[in-house]
Predict the 3D structure of the following.
Amino acid sequence: MPNTSKTRALTAERSDVGVMFRSADFPARGWLRLTSRALKHDPFHATIAVVRHITFVRDEQCDHLNQLGAPASAMTTIPVAYILLDDARLPDEEALIRALRVRHPELQWSRSTIASRADAGDPMFIRAGDQLMAILMIPAPMPFDQQLWQRASWLWPESVDAAGRHRAHLIVSPMGPAESNAELKALGFAENTRLATAFVGAVVAALAGVVAVVWRGNVGRSPEMWLEQSRSAFAPYPDQPFALWMEIVPYRSGKTIGAYTVGLSAFTGREIEFEVDGLDQHTVTARVAQLSAYLIGNGLDDGPKSGEVFEADSEIDHRVAVLHRNSRFNIGPVISFSSLDDRSGRIRTYPIIPAAIARNHPLLVMLGKVGLFDPAQAKNQIRLRPDHYESEVRIESFDQGLSQALSGMIATDVYAEADTNARRALESGDMASARSILQPWAEEVGLLQGAAKLALTLCDVFLFMPSPLRSP
């Protein structure tokens, strides 16, 4: 990594990170499933129902929420937490307010009179300064999400058992300004996250029988971790409790240990994929934790830029490349950190347009005759890591797409005339004229190769079938 102050901030050693993500907290768990699926439990409409209890919320605001058509975890400005309980109950309102005032005296916490609670199951509203928090009790368990709790088990081995014990849950969410005052602005996602984190920690402190907390539907944590770390809800970087908001999932590719994040994209629009050769699991996890904390605290614009190269440092003995691309694990856009130097012999070179197409496609055959196409040229090569794929058997649809694109280039009267003229020039021994006639199509093939190489590099498409995610 470079020696700039920014990079030192990204990679500085921090004892709290080491404690938060200890290597011992990540025992091998066998294969991790790759397939993504939507959460079966969607509290979104329950959240909207809470909103409709607030008399000053305009109908169009609720209509906008309905039109989003996504679970609450996908909302950009309303983080939702789920507190899993061994029995259905709401916290005592006075006890909750006392806990909030003790844990976070910098805010004014009070009972809200915005909606009366005629029934014990009605939502509870608490004012946090000029903002409103809501708690809705659901007297049923959340459907079990295997991937959620499997991820949580890396840091909290008892998570699966804890999740299986719960019989009810609370939905906790910020609801925006507590009054219909145009001067009161809605909080952004980061501000709402800090407020919700402080509030959830106090609920856990004030309510018996909490077995787990799920953040935004994808991060499961113990009540003990929430009690401790939520006290720092409003702390600035680097002390914010980011481990409550995101997961770091380790994996193995060949002999290399890597890790990716789940939940960071809510703050930055991208997750992290970190796969640098020669590091152990503890070091990888600590690096990803440090980078995540930095990005949450400072934003993506102040983070590593796509195309940036970090030099070797005290832990990494080679250069590391940064690339903003799509995830090969189907988790969306990522900031990828990978070894630029092939110190482990993991990288091989493959043709973008394979020899079979080069030999048989009429356009490439013609371009080859005049020296305008050679499948062995560097522009037709892509460097890939075979351990990222199930095999080195090319995906048929990729090659079909290449063939179709090439055929589209010659399916015109203009090319038919050019082909005829080029052949006549070749028959008369005028190679220069033939090359000149076909040059526009050679350039078009070059653009196709460049686009394919970029797409393969960014994981927009794949040359081979990606391998399943393997645990360390």
